[in-house]
Amino acid sequence: MNFQVTVLKILVSYPDGFAVMADLKRDMAILATSGREWTDRTKRLAARVPNLDIFSQRLVERESGGWKITAKGRTILEFMETHLGSDKPMETVRTERVVAPLPRLPQPTERTRWRRARPERRREARERARANAS
């Protein structure tokens, strides 16, 4: 894992590009243990800018209790990401969202209603049916 690139990526994800040291350490630990993919990605990004030094090149400034990415730091990070050939995003196809009315739910049949009725109502219905059949 490239420490310098990871710091830039973490800082750019925070509002105003500022993060306190506790947050930086936590995020760094998460990314360091996230697997080989992150390590490989930061190495490829760092290869785009040899001799990267976030402090001497003024890409990151130390502020009260934390670090802040500078405009130059954002520009360098953007350069690294846009010129990374193997990580080009896949082209996506735009789709239209069609809002169709939902079909009406089927209503219960008479038999279903009869089954759900209380036992005494079922008994009354049976008696009415017998009386009508006679």
3D structure, described in words:
This protein is mainly α and 134 residues long. It has six helices and three strands, in the order H-E-H-H-E-E-H-H-H. The chain has helices at 3-12, 21-32, 36-47, 71-82, 110-116, 119-133, and strands at residues 18-20, 60-63, 66-69. The protein has a three-stranded antiparallel sheet with strand order 1-3-2. Helix 1 (3-12) crosses helix 3. The chain starts with a helix and ends with a helix.
Termini separation (Å)? 89 Å
Unreliable spans are 86-93
H/E series:
HEHHEEHHH
Mind describing the biggest β-sheet? 3 strands, antiparallel
What would the average pLDDT be, to the nearest integer? 80
Provide the spatial order of strands within the biggest beta sheet: 1-3-2
Strand content: 5-15%
Tell the overall outline. Answer: rod-shaped
Sequence-ordered SSE layout with sheet pairings:
Layout: H1 3-12, E1 18-20, H2 21-32, H3 36-47, E2 60-63, E3 66-69, H4 71-82, H5 110-116, H6 119-133
Helix pairs in contact: 1-2, 1-3
Summed up:
This protein is mainly α. The protein is built from six helices and three strands, in the order H-E-H-H-E-E-H-H-H.
Give a quick set of tags describing it.
single chain; about 130 residues; three-stranded antiparallel β-sheet; 6 helices
